[in-house]
Amino acid sequence: MQKRSSLAIVKAVIFALVLRELRTRFNSRRMGIFWFMFEPLAYMLVMVFDRVFLRSVNMKIGGMDYAMFLVTGIVPFLMFKNIVLLGMGAIDANRGLFAYHQIKPLDCIMARVVVECVMRALVYALLVFIMGFWLGYDVSIARPLEWLGIILLGILFSFSLSIILCIWSEAMPNAKIFVTLVFMPLYFLSDVLIPVSKLPSQVQSWLAWNPFFQLSVQLRMAIDPGYPILPGISAQHMIFATLVLLLIGLALYHSRRDKLLSI
Length: 263
Hints:
By secondary structure, the protein is an all-alpha fold.
């Protein structure tokens, strides 16, 4: 039997965990894949219908229609939020698998990140198809490589944060409730539903300390060159913050890895 390299073992483990995660999510109820796709789609379409058609909110933010403002803000934010929250609970959900020495806590977090990214990408693609071909909105991206780079930066930031919060929640289980509650106000303070460009500049500068606000604004700036440039927005700051957070998360994981396996 040919001996496998460490990288090959990690790839096989993550692939198996991804399959397990998909099976757990979609086999827990009938038509699991349909409901996973339909729920966010229905939520988004209801939001667009309510704001644009019922309330006649037809304003433009820069050169972007308000309906596309909602789509380009809600889906990425939900993906980043779910990466953090699902990664935080990855150890509890897979604790029985740690009896196999090939499986490590970090593998479980990475598997959940992969599943969340793939499924949210499918939801976003379907939404863009509906908005562009059925409803006639402009769904083009002015700078697609920059947009993709910011998406990847947001995924890495959320992954790094999930490692830190996962270790914290193992030491303090009640922290999961606190983190979940924190994301509720962040939903309204991250340029997702309300155009922050309409707020006073002093408020905008305070909101710029929110990394999810930074990601949301930079994503829309990559989509629409005419999107308002808000004070304090900087890709360099987000890159630096992500790298620092990743180093802290990996250092904490390295120091607590054996403890996590023994719990």
